[in-house]
Amino acid sequence: MWRISLVIVFGAFVSMLDTSLVNVGLDAIGTDLHASLAQVQWVASAYLIALAVSLPLCGWLGRKVGVGRLWLAAFAAFTVASGLCALAGDVGWLVALRVVQGAAAGLLVPAGQTILGQAVGPQRLGRVMSILGIAVSSGPAIGPSVGGVLLNSLSWQWLFLINLPIGVIGIALGLRYVPRGERAEVPRLDWTGFALIGLGLPMFVYAVTRWGERATLADASVLVPLVLGIAGLVAFGLRRREHPLLDLRLFRDPVYAAASTSSAFIGAAMFGAMLLFPLYFQILRGADVVTTGLSLISLGVGTMIVLPLSGWLTDKYGGGIVALCGNVLSVVTTLPFAFLGAGTSAVTLQILLFLRGLALALSAVPAGTTAFAAVRREQLPDATTQVNILQRVGGAVGGALFAVVLAQHLPGGAEHAFQLAFWWVTGASVVAVGWTIWLFLAQRAAKAERPLATVAT
């Protein structure tokens, strides 16, 4: 079990690291490839859009070829695409290769979660998922600092070459330890459903990201993809089919519905704050990229230290109560940033970031783990895909919302703008507390029903 878990971590870490690692080098890439800022931005955007497109396919592909084979193929494609990105001679080829890289990354995390869920069962799922959570949470956190260190002494190509040794080791271990999974008879791919969600999800993510950049919904580059994205997602949700691309009937289970939707709101507060913290150090405190990355290490350390405990607590007491405590702690550790100014001591900031890392460990993983534990083994591919989609959407909306608040108030003073933005993060964490209360109550009701069902039997 632990061997499989540690191997799966390789794929999760490298895919999540890349979401923030390359962003640091966009300026260097644009200069070297003689590309404009608008062109080079697509190096980051293409990755995220392709990731969103491939996510809905994970469940269907996992059943068709075996989820272990899918994971190995996605990891291999990601690694090869990384090497080719370093060889790209112009920005057009680099963007195209980033599409391949992003599509592979979109399959790695949910496929890995499915492998673990099917291998260990619900009783130990929390402890195992907490190991995967270390990679998922630490990757984006350390990406800027790793990227800054690499660019300090090496060329931008090393932002991609760094993936090669990780990929080779991970694939070699995966070939030895990862179970290939069972091939199942699957219906034809729901092409109409894939077209709707394959258009709607990336359009929506792109639109809210642009909203955060432009700070207005009136811009056509925001409004048009936003309308198309919402229309596609709504049409997919309303569509009725015997064998849909994603089985939305899972949401009939109260525990699954509460846990999966809680993940979306937790994702909004978590990823939204991860966008603000680097800007906080760079704009308000004048730190460079490397210093900013090093300043955020305490956040990742707090998360990594407590995640194993978080998994054990989830298995023992249920994810609802653990996630509730984690979100309450998130509120407590975010609220001070709404009052702190530019002259706050570095020690105070590091203590708060460390404590917020503890809160993240106690909130994000338990909610997702509870969703996976609420479904049957054969439903795990759909569950992992849906939870990842909700986390992505929640993170995109949270990041865009907080970026808009910050951008609109920066002209009036950076200190006031950041304080106001952190009030919004605190509010998002309060909403997440409300949703995890629902999860806690749903879990308690489900436990109360089980003895009655046993007696009736």
UniProtKB/TrEMBL annotation:
<feature type="transmembrane region" description="Helical">
    <location>
        <begin position="220"/>
        <end position="238"/>
    </location>
</feature>
<keyword id="KW-0472">Membrane</keyword>
<dbReference type="GO" id="GO:0022857">
    <property type="term" value="F:transmembrane transporter activity"/>
</dbReference>
<keyword id="KW-0812">Transmembrane</keyword>
<feature type="transmembrane region" description="Helical">
    <location>
        <begin position="351"/>
        <end position="375"/>
    </location>
</feature>
<keyword id="KW-1133">Transmembrane helix</keyword>
<keyword id="KW-0813">Transport</keyword>
<protein>
    <submittedName>
        <fullName>Multidrug efflux MFS transporter</fullName>
    </submittedName>
</protein>
<feature type="transmembrane region" description="Helical">
    <location>
        <begin position="156"/>
        <end position="177"/>
    </location>
</feature>
<feature type="transmembrane region" description="Helical">
    <location>
        <begin position="189"/>
        <end position="208"/>
    </location>
</feature>
<feature type="transmembrane region" description="Helical">
    <location>
        <begin position="387"/>
        <end position="409"/>
    </location>
</feature>
<dbReference type="InterPro" id="IPR004638">
    <property type="entry name" value="EmrB-like"/>
</dbReference>
<feature type="transmembrane region" description="Helical">
    <location>
        <begin position="128"/>
        <end position="150"/>
    </location>
</feature>
<feature type="transmembrane region" description="Helical">
    <location>
        <begin position="95"/>
        <end position="116"/>
    </location>
</feature>
<feature type="domain" description="Major facilitator superfamily (MFS) profile">
    <location>
        <begin position="4"/>
        <end position="446"/>
    </location>
</feature>
<feature type="transmembrane region" description="Helical">
    <location>
        <begin position="70"/>
        <end position="89"/>
    </location>
</feature>
<comment type="similarity">
    <text>Belongs to the major facilitator superfamily. EmrB family.</text>
</comment>
<dbReference type="Pfam" id="PF07690">
    <property type="entry name" value="MFS_1"/>
</dbReference>
<dbReference type="InterPro" id="IPR020846">
    <property type="entry name" value="MFS_dom"/>
</dbReference>
<feature type="transmembrane region" description="Helical">
    <location>
        <begin position="321"/>
        <end position="339"/>
    </location>
</feature>
<dbReference type="InterPro" id="IPR036259">
    <property type="entry name" value="MFS_trans_sf"/>
</dbReference>
<dbReference type="GO" id="GO:0005886">
    <property type="term" value="C:plasma membrane"/>
</dbReference>
<feature type="transmembrane region" description="Helical">
    <location>
        <begin position="40"/>
        <end position="58"/>
    </location>
</feature>
<dbReference type="InterPro" id="IPR011701">
    <property type="entry name" value="MFS"/>
</dbReference>
<keyword id="KW-1003">Cell membrane</keyword>
<feature type="transmembrane region" description="Helical">
    <location>
        <begin position="259"/>
        <end position="283"/>
    </location>
</feature>
<feature type="transmembrane region" description="Helical">
    <location>
        <begin position="289"/>
        <end position="309"/>
    </location>
</feature>
<feature type="transmembrane region" description="Helical">
    <location>
        <begin position="421"/>
        <end position="441"/>
    </location>
</feature>
